[in-house]
Predict the structure.
Amino acid sequence: MLKNHIRPDDGLDKESRKEETKRLQELLTAQQPALREAKLPVVVMVEGWAAAGKGGLINKLISDVDPRFCSVFSLDADRRDADRYPFLYPFFSALPENGKMLFMDGGWMEAAIRDRLCGGLGKEEYRQRILSVNRFERQLRDNGYLVVKLFVHISEKEQAKRQKELLSDRETAWRVSDSDRQQNKEYDRFLDAYEEFMTATGDVFPWHVVDGSGMKKLNYDAFCLLTEAIGASLAAGKICGEPFEADFAMAPTPRLSEVDLSPRLEEAEYRKELDALQERLSRLHNRIYRKRIPVIVCFEGWDAAGKGGSIRRLAYPLDPRGFETWPIASPEPHELARHFLWRFWTRLPRSGHVAIFDRTWYGRVMVERIEGFCSEKDWQRAYNEINEFEADLHDWGAVILKFWLQIDQETQLARFTERQNTPEKQWKITEEDWRNREKWPLYEEAVSDMLEKTSTEAAPWHIIESNDKFYARIKVMRTVADAMEQALKDRN
Amino acid sequence: MLKNHIRPDDGLDKESRKEETKRLQELLTAQQPALREAKLPVVVMVEGWAAAGKGGLINKLISDVDPRFCSVFSLDADRRDADRYPFLYPFFSALPENGKMLFMDGGWMEAAIRDRLCGGLGKEEYRQRILSVNRFERQLRDNGYLVVKLFVHISEKEQAKRQKELLSDRETAWRVSDSDRQQNKEYDRFLDAYEEFMTATGDVFPWHVVDGSGMKKLNYDAFCLLTEAIGASLAAGKICGEPFEADFAMAPTPRLSEVDLSPRLEEAEYRKELDALQERLSRLHNRIYRKRIPVIVCFEGWDAAGKGGSIRRLAYPLDPRGFETWPIASPEPHELARHFLWRFWTRLPRSGHVAIFDRTWYGRVMVERIEGFCSEKDWQRAYNEINEFEADLHDWGAVILKFWLQIDQETQLARFTERQNTPEKQWKITEEDWRNREKWPLYEEAVSDMLEKTSTEAAPWHIIESNDKFYARIKVMRTVADAMEQALKDRN
């Protein structure tokens, strides 16, 4: 029973509690520069019953924290459009930067349980969410985040009393929503759901149940738990998690060394196929849009392999109201200061849209690995972190296409040289491209590892033989069109 | 008549037009690195009749442009939630970075006319929008943007034919919205509105009417106009506009030299007032939230004047679901690469929310002026650019509160010294604070100019005597509460 897990009373008298609360509040204020120094990001998730006082508690907790280093997330304000994005989207998007704190007024517990009990979410989908939440929390821990999870508990009677009070005043009545009322009517059903959720998600970061019946005790308990958790994290230092095993169903691993780069397409044939495929993609995009199926197309490949050209041909027949192209360069400071997948989560397409990524999250296990922009543990862990990310996208219903554009070294040299010698193409070739070319064997190893470890059934890699640009473009477009068609069939 | 302004036929035969189009498309591709070099941002706004082929035209225009340097904005996709933000919000938010191109499928013309003809927007409000659009375009020009405005024209008959075609196919029928049909039914009414709008907004960037009846001619015309405009801009170099006069109704100018810094408040009195004001603000925030009135509170002041402390007391009684605090530091690269107000437009509160800015857009005329982070023309122009920004916020219905927290040099020294000598406060004081202190006279001059030039009736400055922190905090809170109360009265 939830009540048995509640933080016990420590028998402080009124005056001592007041003093202790003040001391702890000062401690939190003092911990903040230390968090900044340690670059430790903190997420404080305040969950609990409607009318339990979560908003008031958060305001008390942040009242002496420098607003430059903390922000507040509100589940209700941030889940508009929630049905067009994956479950974790609002939470991932809200992640704080290193050294900053985020306070959440309702989080992934409330969102999951509300969808299950009030939104008709099926049992299997709910199970998937629990899985996804546990992966998310592990990823946060492994990437150095501290998550403090509080559940503010009040009794059925107390909740009824508070809701009645709120409803009796015109100024506050709007705060009691229909689903809040439902919660009180079906208190036991919600209680079971909360307990089950806490049991299922208590492994990575523990749940703390706090008593919401009295505001002063509540504030005191929360300050205790928060400062303790921060103190422990500061003492332990920022965590960089170990690589881990995961058992994703894998697709056959494509092997670079076995790729036959000889396929070619004559120009006349190319033009014919191009017209037909663009016509087909245009019609498919229409249907994808109406069925609200999200499509994510990822382009990776050697420099000068022809990513840009393929992307342009693919995008041309798509309705610009329904697709975005995301060129991915080095991360900006505010991106570097967060989980490495944050900048991709925040660029996901709405359902029904197509997002094309010109380079992707796989930079983690290629350029970041090779150039030492992250630690070895970081990139080794990233294979499965990426598999988990793509599993979330797949479960959401996305069509995911990952292309590796393969060319040989001779072809790259010829294209580099042509760029160098053609005035209007010179901007496409930089010193860095030549430097990267020298690292061909290192990249080859990294690419092979990537193909082996991340070609899951949910999101397999497609190798595109790209020595001949005509052949490559047509293969990309046909693969996308086939996948869209299949997804439309599966949905019918 | 619109038809008379249409780009005339140049009598090219089919084959020559095809070749010319290809040449122009290559020219556009070649102009792109030059745009990047010149850091020139380009907005291509494609307006026109429903079913005129805007989407297809945009796809053709971008088909050979490197996707890393261009993006597409779609009016329909980006105006969800439009009723919770100022009119210009989606357009300002979509602005491209220096050296990049944005293609807009429908822009501020369509948005304004739709609201007027289909959304019940009043005549006076519409007039305000035209004004606001003209200011916006001038600001874009003065800040180095090129805006190319195309209107794709088709006849009533042609539109009817195309809509019929689209509607006859299940795959494409959804593309014809109710308002598209209304447009064809009331073609002449829309025609008048388009013409009127173009006449009223053609001064800063001219309108180009292009014939949409044939796709090939349309593409050719658009490539001509676009490459011509870009060529001219590249030749002229990036514009940095001159400061300009504007006749805003001004509030009495507060003068720093006349501020009496002696007011104080005893602690007992402070505690009493604080409790009462927090109670009052909490109730007012409820009502503001329900009435959907946006509130924007700006804090500026000397280092150590007490901004942080005032913000915390003000925020404490507010519902965290309905306010955000924005600490403003130096701009990040993607912010620096855009209009200096971009990072503030994108942080505006939704209607009903309170946004608190800890430092603001006034950095332009203080630190950026003094440190030379922008040119003299830039900061001199900024006074009225800011006045225009705040006028937009005011017209939207926002309550705007601008506080200057004033202390004298002795008080600052005492507070700096205390910070230096108190271990848990040392992080608050940096070398830079001491350096800024040495520039006191320069800042004093900048602040005086700012108060004189930006204290408009719509958004007057409030000077807060802050030698005594208790007095300052109470005055801030009371000013905010009074303004909220007044706004609620005005709305009733």
About this structure: Chain A has a mean pLDDT of 93. Chain A touches chain B through 55 residues (CB under 8 Å). Chain A is about 50% helix and 10% strand.
